[in-house]
Amino acid sequence: MTTTNTRPRVIIIGAGVAGITALHTFRSRGFTDVKVLEKGADVGGVWHWNRYPGLTCDVPSQIYQFGFAPKPDWSHIWAGGAEIQRYHRAVVDELGLSDHIQLNTEVVDARWEAATSSWTVRTADGETLTAEVVVCATGVLHHPAYPEIAGLDTFAGEVVHTARWDPTVTTSGRHIAVIGTGSTGVQVVSALVDDACGLTHYVRSPQWVLWAPMSLRQSRCVARLLETLPAAHAGLHKILLRGSAILADITTRPSWRRRAVQTYARMSLRLQVRDRDLRDRLTPDYEPLCKRQVVSGTYYRAIQQPHAHLVTEQITEVTARGIRTADGREHPTDVIVLATGFRAHDYMRPMTIVGRDGRTLDDAWRDGPRAYRMTAIPGFPNLFTILGPNSPTGSISLQHTSQLTADYIVHWLEQLRAGGVTSVEVTDEATEDYNRRLAEAMEPTVWNTGCHSWYIEGGSIDLFPYMPSTLASLLDTPDHSHFHIGTAPGDG
Ligand code: N01
Protein backbone atom coordinates (compact mmCIF):
# COMPACT_ATOMS: atom_id res chain seq x y z
CA MET A 1 0.00 0.00 0.00
CA THR A 2 1.25 3.51 -0.82
CA THR A 3 1.78 5.79 2.17
CA THR A 4 1.91 9.56 1.95
CA ASN A 5 4.26 11.89 3.74
CA THR A 6 5.58 15.31 2.85
CA ARG A 7 9.16 14.20 3.65
CA PRO A 8 11.48 14.06 1.94
CA ARG A 9 10.94 17.18 -0.10
CA VAL A 10 12.26 16.64 -3.63
CA ILE A 11 13.35 19.13 -6.26
CA ILE A 12 13.70 17.78 -9.79
CA ILE A 13 15.66 19.96 -12.19
CA GLY A 14 14.31 19.73 -15.74
CA ALA A 15 10.89 18.81 -17.16
CA GLY A 16 11.92 16.74 -20.15
CA VAL A 17 11.35 13.01 -20.56
CA ALA A 18 13.44 12.23 -17.44
CA GLY A 19 11.89 14.96 -15.27
CA ILE A 20 8.29 14.07 -16.20
CA THR A 21 9.00 10.38 -15.51
CA ALA A 22 10.52 11.17 -12.12
CA LEU A 23 7.72 13.53 -11.09
CA HIS A 24 4.98 11.05 -12.00
CA THR A 25 6.83 8.11 -10.42
CA PHE A 26 7.57 9.88 -7.14
CA ARG A 27 4.03 11.22 -6.81
CA SER A 28 2.41 7.93 -7.62
CA ARG A 29 4.53 6.35 -4.88
CA GLY A 30 3.14 8.79 -2.33
CA PHE A 31 5.77 11.53 -2.24
CA THR A 32 3.71 14.68 -2.18
CA ASP A 33 6.29 17.44 -1.86
CA VAL A 34 7.90 17.10 -5.26
CA LYS A 35 8.59 20.14 -7.40
CA VAL A 36 10.09 20.40 -10.87
CA LEU A 37 12.03 23.52 -11.79
CA GLU A 38 12.23 23.96 -15.55
CA LYS A 39 14.23 26.63 -17.34
CA GLY A 40 12.07 26.60 -20.47
CA ALA A 41 8.61 28.03 -21.05
CA ASP A 42 7.14 24.54 -21.43
CA VAL A 43 7.76 20.93 -20.55
CA GLY A 44 9.31 18.49 -23.05
CA GLY A 45 13.05 19.21 -22.85
CA VAL A 46 14.66 18.66 -26.26
CA TRP A 47 11.19 18.50 -27.80
CA HIS A 48 10.43 21.95 -26.48
CA TRP A 49 13.74 23.54 -27.50
CA ASN A 50 14.12 21.84 -30.89
CA ARG A 51 11.63 23.09 -33.48
CA TYR A 52 13.61 23.03 -36.70
CA PRO A 53 11.83 22.15 -39.97
CA GLY A 54 11.72 18.42 -40.52
CA LEU A 55 12.18 17.53 -36.83
CA THR A 56 11.14 13.90 -36.57
CA CYS A 57 11.85 11.20 -34.04
CA ASP A 58 13.95 8.52 -35.69
CA VAL A 59 12.77 6.01 -33.10
CA PRO A 60 9.26 4.56 -33.67
CA SER A 61 6.72 6.42 -31.57
CA GLN A 62 5.18 3.27 -30.14
CA ILE A 63 8.41 2.88 -28.18
CA TYR A 64 9.22 6.58 -27.81
CA GLN A 65 6.53 7.09 -25.15
CA PHE A 66 6.12 6.77 -21.41
CA GLY A 67 5.17 3.27 -20.20
CA PHE A 68 2.67 4.94 -17.83
CA ALA A 69 1.03 7.03 -20.58
CA PRO A 70 0.55 4.86 -23.65
CA LYS A 71 -0.58 6.67 -26.79
CA PRO A 72 -2.22 4.39 -29.32
CA ASP A 73 -3.01 7.01 -31.96
CA TRP A 74 0.26 8.47 -33.23
CA SER A 75 -0.26 9.92 -36.70
CA HIS A 76 2.96 8.40 -38.06
CA ILE A 77 5.15 5.42 -37.26
CA TRP A 78 7.94 7.97 -36.69
CA ALA A 79 6.14 11.00 -35.24
CA GLY A 80 7.11 14.61 -35.89
CA GLY A 81 8.50 16.89 -33.21
CA ALA A 82 5.33 18.97 -32.80
CA GLU A 83 3.17 15.90 -32.18
CA ILE A 84 5.68 14.53 -29.64
CA GLN A 85 5.70 17.86 -27.85
CA ARG A 86 1.86 17.94 -27.76
CA TYR A 87 2.01 14.44 -26.25
CA HIS A 88 4.31 15.62 -23.44
CA ARG A 89 2.02 18.54 -22.66
CA ALA A 90 -1.06 16.26 -22.69
CA VAL A 91 0.59 13.70 -20.39
CA VAL A 92 1.50 16.41 -17.88
CA ASP A 93 -2.03 17.85 -17.97
CA GLU A 94 -3.88 14.54 -17.87
CA LEU A 95 -1.82 13.16 -14.98
CA GLY A 96 -2.31 16.37 -13.00
CA LEU A 97 1.40 17.17 -12.92
CA SER A 98 1.25 20.80 -14.13
CA ASP A 99 0.79 22.29 -10.67
CA HIS A 100 4.08 20.72 -9.58
CA ILE A 101 6.13 22.16 -12.42
CA GLN A 102 7.51 25.68 -12.20
CA LEU A 103 8.37 26.84 -15.72
CA ASN A 104 10.72 29.68 -16.73
CA THR A 105 12.84 28.86 -13.68
CA GLU A 106 16.53 28.27 -14.19
CA VAL A 107 18.48 26.73 -11.34
CA VAL A 108 21.87 28.38 -10.98
CA ASP A 109 23.15 26.94 -7.75
CA ALA A 110 22.54 23.93 -5.49
CA ARG A 111 24.41 23.49 -2.18
CA TRP A 112 24.38 20.70 0.36
CA GLU A 113 23.83 21.94 3.89
CA ALA A 114 25.28 19.30 6.22
CA ALA A 115 23.73 20.88 9.32
CA THR A 116 20.19 20.34 8.05
CA SER A 117 20.88 17.45 5.64
CA SER A 118 19.19 19.36 2.86
CA TRP A 119 19.93 21.14 -0.40
CA THR A 120 19.56 24.87 -0.87
CA VAL A 121 18.64 25.59 -4.45
CA ARG A 122 18.82 29.06 -5.95
CA THR A 123 17.21 30.15 -9.20
CA ALA A 124 18.27 32.81 -11.69
CA ASP A 125 15.40 34.99 -10.41
CA GLY A 126 16.87 34.95 -6.91
CA GLU A 127 14.35 32.51 -5.44
CA THR A 128 15.73 30.14 -2.78
CA LEU A 129 14.20 26.73 -2.19
CA THR A 130 15.08 23.92 0.17
CA ALA A 131 14.66 20.18 -0.27
CA GLU A 132 16.14 17.05 1.23
CA VAL A 133 16.68 15.53 -2.22
CA VAL A 134 17.69 16.94 -5.61
CA VAL A 135 17.27 14.99 -8.84
CA CYS A 136 19.05 16.35 -11.91
CA ALA A 137 17.09 15.52 -15.05
CA THR A 138 18.85 18.12 -17.15
CA GLY A 139 19.53 16.19 -20.36
CA VAL A 140 22.68 15.74 -22.42
CA LEU A 141 21.39 17.35 -25.60
CA HIS A 142 20.72 20.79 -24.25
CA HIS A 143 23.44 23.35 -24.94
CA PRO A 144 23.77 24.06 -28.69
CA ALA A 145 27.34 23.75 -30.01
CA TYR A 146 28.23 26.79 -32.11
CA PRO A 147 31.19 26.10 -34.40
CA GLU A 148 34.23 28.31 -34.22
CA ILE A 149 34.42 29.43 -37.84
CA ALA A 150 36.32 32.62 -38.66
CA GLY A 151 34.03 35.44 -39.73
CA LEU A 152 30.76 33.81 -38.65
CA ASP A 153 29.83 36.99 -36.78
CA THR A 154 30.46 39.13 -39.89
CA PHE A 155 27.90 37.32 -42.03
CA ALA A 156 25.34 39.78 -43.39
CA GLY A 157 22.53 37.22 -43.66
CA GLU A 158 20.84 35.18 -40.96
CA VAL A 159 22.49 32.46 -38.87
CA VAL A 160 20.26 30.01 -37.02
CA HIS A 161 21.12 26.97 -34.91
CA THR A 162 18.70 24.07 -35.30
CA ALA A 163 18.41 23.66 -31.52
CA ARG A 164 17.19 27.26 -31.18
CA TRP A 165 15.24 27.61 -34.42
CA ASP A 166 13.96 31.11 -35.16
CA PRO A 167 10.57 30.78 -36.89
CA THR A 168 10.85 34.31 -38.29
CA VAL A 169 13.75 33.30 -40.55
CA THR A 170 12.56 32.88 -44.13
CA THR A 171 14.11 29.96 -45.94
CA SER A 172 11.74 29.67 -48.88
CA GLY A 173 13.16 31.02 -52.15
CA ARG A 174 16.59 31.66 -50.64
CA HIS A 175 20.09 30.23 -50.79
CA ILE A 176 20.59 28.12 -47.71
CA ALA A 177 23.76 26.65 -46.26
CA VAL A 178 23.40 23.75 -43.84
CA ILE A 179 26.48 22.85 -41.78
CA GLY A 180 26.54 19.46 -40.07
CA THR A 181 25.51 15.99 -41.08
CA GLY A 182 24.24 14.28 -37.94
CA SER A 183 20.61 13.20 -37.51
CA THR A 184 19.60 16.85 -37.37
CA GLY A 185 21.49 18.03 -40.46
CA VAL A 186 20.05 15.22 -42.56
CA GLN A 187 16.49 16.01 -41.41
CA VAL A 188 16.76 19.75 -41.94
CA VAL A 189 18.30 19.40 -45.43
CA SER A 190 15.44 17.11 -46.48
CA ALA A 191 12.85 19.55 -45.11
CA LEU A 192 14.27 22.78 -46.56
CA VAL A 193 15.41 21.71 -50.00
CA ASP A 194 12.08 21.77 -51.84
CA ASP A 195 11.28 25.44 -51.21
CA ALA A 196 14.83 26.76 -51.30
CA CYS A 197 16.25 28.59 -54.29
CA GLY A 198 19.48 26.71 -53.63
CA LEU A 199 20.72 24.53 -50.78
CA THR A 200 24.33 23.66 -50.04
CA HIS A 201 25.11 20.98 -47.49
CA TYR A 202 28.57 21.34 -45.91
CA VAL A 203 29.70 17.90 -44.86
CA ARG A 204 32.91 17.58 -42.86
CA SER A 205 32.39 13.89 -42.09
CA PRO A 206 29.82 12.04 -44.21
CA GLN A 207 27.51 9.69 -42.31
CA TRP A 208 25.97 6.38 -43.22
CA VAL A 209 22.27 7.10 -43.68
CA LEU A 210 20.05 4.05 -43.27
CA TRP A 211 16.98 4.17 -45.48
CA ALA A 212 13.65 3.90 -43.61
CA PRO A 213 10.12 4.94 -44.65
CA MET A 214 10.02 7.80 -42.14
CA SER A 215 6.89 9.43 -43.58
CA LEU A 216 4.79 6.28 -43.16
CA ARG A 217 1.45 7.00 -41.47
CA GLN A 218 0.19 4.80 -38.67
CA SER A 219 -3.14 3.39 -39.78
CA ARG A 220 -6.30 4.42 -37.90
CA CYS A 221 -7.21 0.73 -37.61
CA VAL A 222 -3.99 0.13 -35.65
CA ALA A 223 -4.84 3.04 -33.35
CA ARG A 224 -8.37 1.74 -32.79
CA LEU A 225 -7.10 -1.77 -32.13
CA LEU A 226 -4.51 -0.58 -29.60
CA GLU A 227 -7.10 1.66 -27.97
CA THR A 228 -9.58 -1.18 -27.63
CA LEU A 229 -7.02 -3.71 -26.44
CA PRO A 230 -4.72 -2.01 -23.90
CA ALA A 231 -3.12 -5.37 -23.10
CA ALA A 232 -2.13 -5.77 -26.75
CA HIS A 233 -0.73 -2.24 -26.67
CA ALA A 234 1.33 -3.02 -23.58
CA GLY A 235 2.50 -6.23 -25.29
CA LEU A 236 3.59 -4.28 -28.37
CA HIS A 237 5.53 -1.89 -26.15
CA LYS A 238 7.33 -4.82 -24.52
CA ILE A 239 8.15 -6.37 -27.89
CA LEU A 240 9.55 -3.05 -29.10
CA LEU A 241 11.67 -2.75 -25.94
CA ARG A 242 13.10 -6.18 -26.70
CA GLY A 243 13.69 -5.09 -30.30
CA SER A 244 15.59 -2.05 -29.07
CA ALA A 245 17.81 -4.36 -26.99
CA ILE A 246 18.57 -6.41 -30.09
CA LEU A 247 19.39 -3.21 -31.97
CA ALA A 248 21.69 -2.09 -29.16
CA ASP A 249 23.38 -5.46 -29.34
CA ILE A 250 23.79 -5.12 -33.10
CA THR A 251 25.26 -1.66 -32.60
CA THR A 252 27.77 -2.70 -29.98
CA ARG A 253 28.86 -6.30 -30.58
CA PRO A 254 30.45 -7.72 -33.71
CA SER A 255 28.12 -10.40 -35.13
CA TRP A 256 26.50 -11.55 -38.36
CA ARG A 257 23.51 -9.31 -37.55
CA ARG A 258 25.80 -6.31 -37.28
CA ARG A 259 27.38 -7.17 -40.62
CA ALA A 260 23.90 -7.49 -42.18
CA VAL A 261 22.93 -3.99 -41.03
CA GLN A 262 26.26 -2.66 -42.26
CA THR A 263 25.54 -4.16 -45.66
CA TYR A 264 22.08 -2.59 -45.59
CA ALA A 265 23.68 0.80 -44.87
CA ARG A 266 26.01 0.43 -47.84
CA MET A 267 23.09 -0.65 -50.04
CA SER A 268 21.03 2.33 -48.86
CA LEU A 269 23.69 4.60 -50.34
CA ARG A 270 24.47 2.55 -53.42
CA LEU A 271 20.87 2.07 -54.55
CA GLN A 272 19.82 5.66 -53.98
CA VAL A 273 22.85 7.50 -55.33
CA ARG A 274 23.80 6.35 -58.81
CA ASP A 275 26.32 9.11 -59.54
CA ARG A 276 29.70 7.66 -58.63
CA ASP A 277 31.43 10.91 -57.77
CA LEU A 278 28.62 12.01 -55.48
CA ARG A 279 28.48 8.56 -53.93
CA ASP A 280 32.22 8.65 -53.21
CA ARG A 281 31.87 12.00 -51.54
CA LEU A 282 28.95 10.72 -49.46
CA THR A 283 30.87 7.64 -48.34
CA PRO A 284 32.18 7.83 -44.75
CA ASP A 285 35.76 6.73 -44.01
CA TYR A 286 34.57 4.45 -41.19
CA GLU A 287 32.35 1.38 -40.92
CA PRO A 288 28.56 1.75 -40.68
CA LEU A 289 27.26 1.66 -37.06
CA CYS A 290 30.40 3.31 -35.68
CA LYS A 291 28.45 6.47 -34.85
CA ARG A 292 24.93 6.98 -33.60
CA GLN A 293 23.04 5.79 -36.67
CA VAL A 294 21.40 8.37 -38.92
CA VAL A 295 18.10 7.22 -40.45
CA SER A 296 16.25 8.93 -43.29
CA GLY A 297 13.99 8.07 -46.19
CA THR A 298 14.57 11.36 -47.96
CA TYR A 299 18.11 12.67 -47.54
CA TYR A 300 19.82 11.02 -50.52
CA ARG A 301 16.96 12.12 -52.78
CA ALA A 302 17.14 15.66 -51.37
CA ILE A 303 20.87 16.07 -51.97
CA GLN A 304 20.46 14.96 -55.59
CA GLN A 305 17.99 17.70 -56.50
CA PRO A 306 19.38 19.98 -59.23
CA HIS A 307 19.54 23.00 -56.91
CA ALA A 308 21.14 21.04 -54.03
CA HIS A 309 24.93 20.85 -53.65
CA LEU A 310 27.17 18.77 -51.47
CA VAL A 311 30.37 20.50 -50.35
CA THR A 312 32.99 18.35 -48.67
CA GLU A 313 35.80 20.92 -48.93
CA GLN A 314 36.69 22.29 -45.53
CA ILE A 315 35.10 25.59 -44.55
CA THR A 316 37.83 28.20 -44.04
CA GLU A 317 35.76 31.26 -43.24
CA VAL A 318 32.41 32.90 -43.39
CA THR A 319 32.36 36.16 -45.31
CA ALA A 320 29.66 38.83 -45.32
CA ARG A 321 28.13 37.19 -48.40
CA GLY A 322 28.63 33.52 -47.87
CA ILE A 323 30.94 30.65 -47.03
CA ARG A 324 34.50 30.24 -48.28
CA THR A 325 35.99 26.77 -48.59
CA ALA A 326 39.59 25.51 -48.73
CA ASP A 327 39.56 25.53 -52.55
CA GLY A 328 39.18 29.33 -52.37
CA ARG A 329 35.57 29.37 -53.59
CA GLU A 330 33.07 31.66 -51.96
CA HIS A 331 29.57 30.17 -51.94
CA PRO A 332 26.94 32.94 -51.85
CA THR A 333 24.42 32.32 -49.07
CA ASP A 334 21.36 34.04 -47.58
CA VAL A 335 20.84 31.87 -44.51
CA ILE A 336 23.30 29.68 -42.58
CA VAL A 337 21.72 26.79 -40.68
CA LEU A 338 23.99 25.35 -37.99
CA ALA A 339 23.13 21.69 -37.43
CA THR A 340 26.29 21.34 -35.39
CA GLY A 341 24.98 19.45 -32.39
CA PHE A 342 25.32 19.95 -28.67
CA ARG A 343 27.97 20.53 -25.99
CA ALA A 344 27.48 17.23 -24.23
CA HIS A 345 30.43 18.04 -21.93
CA ASP A 346 28.26 20.67 -20.28
CA TYR A 347 25.87 18.09 -18.84
CA MET A 348 24.37 19.45 -15.57
CA ARG A 349 26.11 22.78 -16.19
CA PRO A 350 26.40 25.74 -15.92
CA MET A 351 24.73 25.14 -12.55
CA THR A 352 27.10 25.30 -9.62
CA ILE A 353 26.61 22.16 -7.57
CA VAL A 354 28.40 22.05 -4.24
CA GLY A 355 28.27 18.83 -2.26
CA ARG A 356 29.72 17.64 1.02
CA ASP A 357 32.76 19.54 2.39
CA GLY A 358 32.45 22.18 -0.34
CA ARG A 359 33.27 19.76 -3.15
CA THR A 360 31.99 21.02 -6.50
CA LEU A 361 30.72 18.88 -9.35
CA ASP A 362 33.41 20.42 -11.58
CA ASP A 363 36.03 19.05 -9.16
CA ALA A 364 34.37 15.67 -8.90
CA TRP A 365 34.10 15.32 -12.68
CA ARG A 366 37.46 16.82 -13.59
CA ASP A 367 38.38 13.56 -15.37
CA GLY A 368 34.94 13.16 -16.93
CA PRO A 369 31.42 12.43 -15.72
CA ARG A 370 31.06 9.28 -13.64
CA ALA A 371 28.38 7.98 -11.37
CA TYR A 372 27.36 4.84 -9.54
CA ARG A 373 24.66 3.01 -11.52
CA MET A 374 24.38 6.13 -13.72
CA THR A 375 22.71 8.08 -10.94
CA ALA A 376 24.57 8.53 -7.61
CA ILE A 377 27.76 10.58 -7.20
CA PRO A 378 30.19 10.26 -4.28
CA GLY A 379 30.49 13.50 -2.33
CA PHE A 380 26.92 14.52 -3.21
CA PRO A 381 24.48 13.15 -0.62
CA ASN A 382 20.79 12.92 -1.50
CA LEU A 383 21.53 13.90 -5.09
CA PHE A 384 20.71 11.72 -8.09
CA THR A 385 20.76 12.09 -11.85
CA ILE A 386 18.48 10.57 -14.45
CA LEU A 387 19.90 9.73 -17.88
CA GLY A 388 23.25 10.52 -16.31
CA PRO A 389 26.76 9.24 -17.13
CA ASN A 390 26.79 5.94 -19.06
CA SER A 391 23.04 5.82 -19.41
CA PRO A 392 21.94 3.76 -22.38
CA THR A 393 21.69 5.72 -25.58
CA GLY A 394 21.07 5.10 -29.24
CA SER A 395 18.25 2.64 -29.72
CA ILE A 396 17.42 1.98 -26.05
CA SER A 397 14.26 3.76 -24.91
CA LEU A 398 15.09 6.87 -22.88
CA GLN A 399 11.68 6.65 -21.25
CA HIS A 400 12.41 3.10 -20.11
CA THR A 401 15.83 4.03 -18.71
CA SER A 402 14.32 7.05 -16.95
CA GLN A 403 11.63 4.84 -15.43
CA LEU A 404 14.11 2.30 -14.10
CA THR A 405 16.29 5.03 -12.63
CA ALA A 406 13.31 6.82 -11.07
CA ASP A 407 12.22 3.51 -9.48
CA TYR A 408 15.74 3.06 -8.12
CA ILE A 409 15.68 6.57 -6.61
CA VAL A 410 12.28 5.80 -5.02
CA HIS A 411 14.01 3.14 -2.95
CA TRP A 412 16.23 5.81 -1.38
CA LEU A 413 13.34 8.24 -0.98
CA GLU A 414 11.59 5.51 0.99
CA GLN A 415 14.61 5.19 3.29
CA LEU A 416 14.52 8.92 3.89
CA ARG A 417 10.77 8.81 4.47
CA ALA A 418 10.92 5.97 6.94
CA GLY A 419 12.46 8.28 9.55
CA GLY A 420 15.86 8.19 11.15
CA VAL A 421 17.76 8.29 7.85
CA THR A 422 18.71 11.83 6.87
CA SER A 423 21.19 11.29 4.05
CA VAL A 424 22.36 8.65 1.59
CA GLU A 425 25.63 8.97 -0.30
CA VAL A 426 27.30 6.41 -2.49
CA THR A 427 30.85 5.49 -1.54
CA ASP A 428 33.88 6.28 -3.67
CA GLU A 429 34.88 2.60 -3.67
CA ALA A 430 31.50 1.44 -5.00
CA THR A 431 31.63 4.04 -7.74
CA GLU A 432 35.21 3.10 -8.68
CA ASP A 433 34.29 -0.57 -8.75
CA TYR A 434 31.15 0.06 -10.79
CA ASN A 435 33.05 2.06 -13.39
CA ARG A 436 35.79 -0.56 -13.56
CA ARG A 437 33.17 -3.25 -14.22
CA LEU A 438 31.59 -0.97 -16.79
CA ALA A 439 34.91 -0.65 -18.63
CA GLU A 440 35.35 -4.43 -18.51
CA ALA A 441 31.84 -4.99 -19.85
CA MET A 442 32.67 -2.72 -22.76
CA GLU A 443 35.73 -4.79 -23.59
CA PRO A 444 34.10 -7.10 -26.15
CA THR A 445 32.05 -4.32 -27.74
CA VAL A 446 32.88 -2.05 -30.65
CA TRP A 447 33.56 0.83 -28.26
CA ASN A 448 36.94 -0.71 -27.63
CA THR A 449 37.72 -1.67 -31.20
CA GLY A 450 38.37 1.67 -32.80
CA CYS A 451 34.72 2.48 -33.34
CA HIS A 452 33.75 5.65 -31.52
CA SER A 453 30.35 6.96 -30.66
CA TRP A 454 29.10 10.50 -30.81
CA TYR A 455 29.02 10.38 -27.02
CA ILE A 456 32.65 9.39 -26.64
CA GLU A 457 33.75 12.00 -29.16
CA GLY A 458 31.44 14.73 -27.99
CA GLY A 459 31.15 14.28 -24.29
CA SER A 460 33.02 11.34 -22.85
CA ILE A 461 29.72 9.77 -21.87
CA ASP A 462 30.10 6.26 -23.19
CA LEU A 463 27.37 4.05 -24.45
CA PHE A 464 26.17 1.89 -21.63
CA PRO A 465 26.84 -1.63 -22.82
CA TYR A 466 24.09 -3.46 -21.03
CA MET A 467 20.75 -4.40 -22.52
CA PRO A 468 17.44 -3.33 -20.90
CA SER A 469 17.04 -6.68 -19.14
CA THR A 470 20.42 -6.45 -17.40
CA LEU A 471 19.89 -2.74 -16.98
CA ALA A 472 16.78 -3.50 -14.92
CA SER A 473 18.64 -5.99 -12.76
CA LEU A 474 21.44 -3.46 -12.22
CA LEU A 475 18.98 -0.93 -10.92
CA ASP A 476 16.53 -3.04 -8.96
CA THR A 477 18.70 -4.09 -6.03
CA PRO A 478 19.94 -1.05 -4.12
CA ASP A 479 22.94 -2.14 -2.10
CA HIS A 480 23.08 -0.43 1.25
CA SER A 481 26.65 -1.50 1.89
CA HIS A 482 27.68 0.80 -0.97
CA PHE A 483 26.17 3.87 0.65
CA HIS A 484 27.01 6.02 3.65
CA ILE A 485 23.74 6.28 5.51
CA GLY A 486 23.43 9.41 7.63
CA THR A 487 21.05 9.29 10.58
CA ALA A 488 19.52 11.90 12.82
CA PRO A 489 21.20 12.34 16.23
CA GLY A 490 19.83 9.72 18.58
CA ASP A 491 18.85 7.39 15.74
CA GLY A 492 22.17 5.65 15.72
O1 N01 B 1 24.47 16.66 -33.85
P1 N01 B 1 25.78 15.74 -34.12
P2 N01 B 1 22.94 16.37 -34.21
N1 N01 B 1 32.43 22.57 -39.43
O2 N01 B 1 26.71 16.08 -33.01
C1 N01 B 1 29.28 18.95 -37.69
C2 N01 B 1 19.98 13.25 -31.36
N2 N01 B 1 18.97 13.44 -32.36
O3 N01 B 1 22.17 17.55 -33.69
O4 N01 B 1 31.18 14.78 -37.55
C3 N01 B 1 31.73 21.62 -40.08
O5 N01 B 1 25.40 14.35 -34.36
C4 N01 B 1 29.81 17.61 -37.25
O6 N01 B 1 30.86 17.20 -38.10
P3 N01 B 1 31.93 16.09 -37.59
C5 N01 B 1 20.82 12.05 -31.69
O7 N01 B 1 21.00 11.29 -30.51
C6 N01 B 1 17.95 12.59 -32.30
O8 N01 B 1 22.75 16.02 -35.61
O9 N01 B 1 32.34 16.56 -36.21
N3 N01 B 1 30.93 20.74 -39.49
C7 N01 B 1 28.53 16.76 -37.38
O10 N01 B 1 28.31 16.40 -38.71
C8 N01 B 1 22.11 12.64 -32.12
O11 N01 B 1 23.16 11.77 -31.85
C9 N01 B 1 16.94 12.73 -33.17
O12 N01 B 1 33.01 16.15 -38.57
C10 N01 B 1 30.82 20.80 -38.15
C11 N01 B 1 27.45 17.76 -36.97
O13 N01 B 1 28.01 19.06 -37.06
C12 N01 B 1 22.14 13.92 -31.33
O14 N01 B 1 20.79 14.35 -31.27
C13 N01 B 1 16.96 13.73 -34.14
C14 N01 B 1 31.51 21.76 -37.39
C15 N01 B 1 26.96 17.56 -35.56
O15 N01 B 1 26.33 16.31 -35.48
C16 N01 B 1 22.91 15.06 -31.96
O16 N01 B 1 22.59 15.11 -33.35
C17 N01 B 1 18.02 14.60 -34.18
C18 N01 B 1 32.35 22.67 -38.10
N4 N01 B 1 33.07 23.61 -37.46
C19 N01 B 1 19.03 14.45 -33.28
N5 N01 B 1 31.21 21.57 -36.09
C20 N01 B 1 15.81 11.79 -33.04
O17 N01 B 1 15.05 11.67 -33.93
C21 N01 B 1 30.36 20.52 -36.04
N6 N01 B 1 30.12 20.06 -37.28
C22 N01 B 1 15.66 10.97 -31.81
Written description of the protein model:
The chain is an alpha/beta fold and 492 residues long. It has two domains: 10-143 and 343-487, FAD/NAD(P)-binding domain (3-Layer(bba) Sandwich); 144-207 and 292-341, FAD/NAD(P)-binding domain (3-Layer(bba) Sandwich), CATH 3.50.50.60. The protein is 31% helix and 17% strand. It contains 14 helices and 21 strands. It has helices at residues 17-28, 46-49, 81-94, 183-192, 220-228, 230-252, 256-272, 276-282, 299-303, 361-364, 398-417, 428-442, 454-459, 468-475; strands at residues 10-13, 34-37, 101-102, 107-113, 118-123, 128-131, 133-136, 158-161, 175-179, 198-202, 209-210, 294-295, 308-311, 315-318, 322-325, 330-332, 335-338, 352-354, 383-385, 421-426, 483-487. Strands 3-2-1-7-19 form a five-stranded parallel beta sheet, with helices on one face. Strands 8-17-9-10-13 form a five-stranded parallel beta sheet. Strands 6-5-4-18 form a four-stranded mixed beta sheet, with no helix packed on it. The radius of gyration is 24 Å and the shape is globular. Bound molecules: 3-acetylpyridine adenine dinucleotide. The site of 3-acetylpyridine adenine dinucleotide (N01) has 25 residues, from helix 4 and helix 13.
